[in-house]
Amino acid sequence: MMNRCARCAEFASITDVLGYAWCVTHAYRAEVSAWGKAHHFPDLKCFPFAIGPGEYLWKIAVGVGKDDFLYMALAAIEDRENNEDL
Ligand SMILES: [Zn+2]
Q1: How far apart are CA 13 and CA 85, in angstroms?
Q2: How far is the CA of 52 from the centre of ligand 1 (A)?
Q3: In the chain, how many H helices and how many E strands?
Q4: Engineering a disulfide at 16: which of 1, 33, 36, 61 sits with its beta carbon 3.0 to 4.6 angstroms away?
Q5: 73 occurs within a structural domain
Q6: Model-level pTM greater than 0.85?
């Protein structure tokens, strides 16, 4: 059985840690949810927005957030990863 992407009508290529199915275009959201889970769904600032804290708020953000917002979240995650490397 093929799943459909939670964001569009395309066939999903992956399922993320929150249980959402994503197509190739929206697969980047799986990176956001995977990072959130690995860090216990923290409060993530991505000015002028924010996600969380908590799995419930992350699930809403990753599931229904617009692409612009999720790209900001992904950038905020990359910033945090880079700072942790210093
Ligand atoms: Zn999609």
Answers
A1: 31
A2: 23
A3: 3, 4
A4: 33
A5: yes
A6: yes
Query: For residues 56 and 32, what is the distance between their CA atoms, to the nearest angstrom?
Result: 14
Q: Looking up tokens 């999903």, which residue turns up?
A: 12
Domain that holds residue 36: 30-84
* CA of residue 26 to ligand 1 center, whole Å: 5
Q: How many domains does the chain have?
A: 1
Spacing, Cα 7 to ligand 1 middle (Å): 5
**Structural domain includes residue 45:** yes
What is the rounded radius of gyration, in angstroms, for the C-alpha atoms of the chain?
13
Q: Residue 6: inside a domain, yes or no?
A: no
Distances (CA, A) of 54 to 12, 46, 48, 50, 75: 26, 16, 19, 12, 19
Q: How far is the CA of 71 from the centre of ligand 1 (A)?
A: 14
What pLDDT digit, counting tens, does each position of 3-56 carry?
999 999 899 999 999 999 999 999 999 999 999 999 999 999 988 889 999 999
Q: How far is the CA of 22 from the centre of ligand 1 (A)?
A: 5
